[in-house]
């Protein structure tokens, strides 16, 4: 179903949402780009902001890390759906869609292999192809299948996939090698370390394709349904989504915060059983999805109020050039933190970054 909506209003909301997501992605990526995540424990303990970092990191892990990637990926799915609708029944439109995916893939590969191993664009480009056959599904089925793909599939494949993957260097050794390469003032050493780190992480986080594809599918369903193109006509949907994700995401977030704090839960001994561990794994994948959709619904609802809209709209220019800003974040961070640049590294800790 396609709904007409004023073009300026439509792009203003979507661009503001992309800008918000991009800011969250920056916060997530800076942990790696500043080299903080690669530091061994003794170096982290010596940082001036170690006390604040100990409080900040758990909050970022639960409230920012997966949620920012969720929102960014869902909005890419929305964009793909809008492009596909414009290309429907038009051979030239389909060619434009495929060309855009090809260009995105080139940008992603260059970004990944010459700058930063954590690139996500290449996944969007390749998985965007799968949205073509999947577009035959109804919006409800596409969104439901997306949830199954990004929440259930990694858990179900966990006993199968890791044993098939090649043995890799242990994580501390890999991190130490990457840290030394990124601190180096030699571009060749940095690039070699980047390629090695990329290979290591593609294997270590083998579930990323499912993680991303499911979110793209959910975004494509939202983009096609019209709930983001004319949100004022679907306020009931957005209120229900906000309330349900607040209960689900908030509850799961509190649960994992309690576990991360090391508090005992003697009343739940079943969590140590095989079935309990599977439930926890499913919940772990569901939490960032629920919180990301919570942020999306909350922002859409706030955007309907003039006062809040004035605060959110300044993010729109950032979202209009999301690709440029995404790659620009990497380049600026490398100049600031890597040895080939100013070599600041994580000397100020997570708070200072």
Could you characterize the architecture of this molecule?
The chain has helices at 7-33, 41-45, 50-87, 91-114, 121-134, 139-157, 171-183, 187-204, 208-225, 235-260, 274-303, 306-312, 316-320, 322-337, 349-352. It is mainly α and 353 residues long. The protein is globular, with a radius of gyration of 21 Å. It starts with 6 loop residues before the first helix and ends with a helix. Residues 1-10 have low confidence and may be disordered.
Mean pLDDT: 89
Strand content: under 5%
* Helix/strand/pairing category: mainly alpha
Number of helices: 15
N-end to C-end Cα span = 44 Å
Uncertain segments: 1-10
Please provide the count of β strands: 0
Any descriptors?
353 residues, mainly alpha, 15 helices, 75% helix, 0% strand, globular, disordered N terminus
Summed up:
The protein is mainly alpha-helical and 353 residues long. Helix content is 75%, strand content 0%. It starts with 6 loop residues before the first helix and ends with a helix.
Secondary-structure topology with pairs:
Elements: H1 7-33, H2 41-45, H3 50-87, H4 91-114, H5 121-134, H6 139-157, H7 171-183, H8 187-204, H9 208-225, H10 235-260, H11 274-303, H12 306-312, H13 316-320, H14 322-337, H15 349-352
Helix pairs in contact: 1-3, 1-14, 3-4, 3-5, 3-9, 3-10, 3-11, 4-5, 5-9, 6-9, 6-11, 7-8, 10-11
């Amino acid at each position: 179903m396609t709904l007409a909506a004023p073009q300026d209003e439509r792009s203003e909301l979507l661009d503001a949402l992309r800008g918000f997501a991009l800011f969250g992605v920056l916060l997530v990526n800076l942990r790696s780009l500043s080299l903080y995540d690669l530091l061994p424990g003794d170096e982290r303990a010596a940082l001036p902001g170690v006390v604040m970092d100990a409080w900040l990191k758990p909050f970022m892990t639960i409230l920012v890390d997966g949620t920012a990637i969720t929102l960014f990926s869902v909005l890419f799915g929305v964009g793909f759906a809008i492009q596909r609708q414009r290309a429907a029944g038009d051979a030239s439109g389909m060619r434009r869609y495929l060309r855009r995916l090809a260009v995105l893939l080139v940008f992603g590969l260059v970004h990944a292999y010459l700058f930063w191993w954590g690139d996500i664009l290449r996944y969007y480009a390749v998985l965007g192809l799968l949205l073509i056959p999947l577009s035959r599904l109804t919006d409800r089925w596409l969104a439901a299948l997306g949830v199954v793909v990004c929440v259930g599939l990694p858990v179900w494949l966990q006993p199968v996939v890791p044993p098939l993957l090649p043995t890799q260097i242990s994580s501390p050794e890999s991190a130490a090698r990457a840290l030394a390469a990124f601190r180096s003032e030699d571009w060749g050493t940095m690039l070699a370390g980047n390629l090695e780190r990329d290979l290591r992480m593609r294997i270590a986080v083998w579930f990323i394709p499912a993680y991303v594809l499911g979110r793209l599918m959910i975004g494509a369903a939202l983009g096609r349904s019209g709930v983001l193109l004319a949100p004022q006509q679907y306020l009931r949907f957005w209120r229900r989504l906000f309330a349900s994700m607040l209960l689900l995401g908030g509850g799961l977030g509190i649960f994992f915060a309690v576990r991360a704090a090391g508090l005992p839960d003697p009343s739940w001994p079943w969590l140590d059983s095989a079935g309990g561990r599977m439930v926890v794994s499913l919940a772990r994948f569901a939490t960032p999805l629920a919180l990301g959709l919570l942020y999306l619904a909350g922002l859409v609802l706030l955007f309907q109020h003039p006062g809040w809209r004035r605060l959110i709209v300044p993010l729109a220019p950032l979202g209009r050039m999301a690709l440029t800003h995404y790659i620009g974040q990497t380049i600026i961070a490398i100049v600031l933190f890597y040895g080939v640049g100013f070599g600041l590294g994580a000397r100020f800790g997570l708070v200072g970054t």
